[in-house]
From TrEMBL:
Keywords: Membrane, Transmembrane, Transmembrane helix. InterPro entries: YibE_F. The chain crosses the membrane at residues 123-140, 171-191, 198-217, 244-265, 313-331, 343-365. It comes from the Bacteria. The keyword Transmembrane applies. This is Putative membrane protein. Pfam families: YibE_F. It comes from Aminivibrio pyruvatiphilus. The keyword Nucleotidyltransferase does not apply.
Amino acid sequence: MESKRRDHLLTLLFLLLTLALFLLPSWKQAPDSAERVKVRILSTDNSNMRQFGIVRTGDQGLRIRILEGSFRGTETDAVNHLAGRLELDKVFVPGDIAFAVVDADAGRIAKASVLDHYRLDTQLRLLALFCALLLLFGGWTGARALLSFFFTGAMIWKVLLPGYLAGLDPVLISLFTALALTAAIVFLVGGVGRKGTAAFLGSALGILLTCGLSLYFGSEFRIHGAVKPFSETLLYSGFAHLDLTRIFLGGIFLASSGAVMDLAMDVSSAMAEIAEKRPDLSRRQLVLSGFAVGRSVVGTMTTTLLLAYTGSYSSLLLVFVAQGVPLANILNMQYVSAEILHTLVGSFGLVTVAPFTALAGGWLFTGRDRG
């Protein structure tokens, strides 16, 4: 009964923290009276578009109807600017639903800019489906997992990213965020008790080790933080003071922290179940059981990060393979070396978190050492 009361209080605490974070103002958001609305493309004018191979440049004229906001139902002209980059450009056809920014002046439309295809409604439907599935399958535990999901998003958007932009040390703010998220997720899902504490201690030790390895091998690899997409653009946007390399290093252990706490919870939950069913086991036997569980889980988790990062950079690797670049050249390239560093250092955390959690669980789940 006392354990459930603690869990309910913790859930309420993190619910209030999540709401408070979402209510915080965004990072120095500039005053903007423009409306962001859904529009329908009525007709297009492609006469100013130019085709160069597989890319297009120039402008696409659009006639749009605004579907929401204060100008709902109004038809106006807009322009779609093409930069000749496939990853950024889009070409509309009549009937498309798009996302647009409408600037008004004295109650009239001064300018309408169509930015991209409208995806917000589809994203909301996907999120709603995910939430429903999680609640249906997980029940109360699923509800707390969902709360930890939103708390994670709020911490990243309202704490981590503004901390980077404010000039705080990227490694320290990343470490703080990773540990805070670990505590929230582990205790919300695992409960405020020995199981949750063992999982948190194992995760925290694994994250700290990964942080240390990131700093050491990051300097050995000599990789500049600008290797990450849009990093250089950030410098040109008025944030030349940012240390991109430390942001890159902080992202290594932050990215692997989710898999680390997942493995820690697996080991801790198994040890809690063993300790409950076999209270006669000694501390040493329980730790060895935790090691056995950890070895089985680590065996399948070691490729998790490799597959994740390979999937993210499959196009880059395809370019190298298609051009017949020698393997030694590929492995030594800064882009590839950065992902190798990500994968191997993150995997160190996965491998070590299992014994860390087993040792913590052996200490917590047994009241005394029975030999």
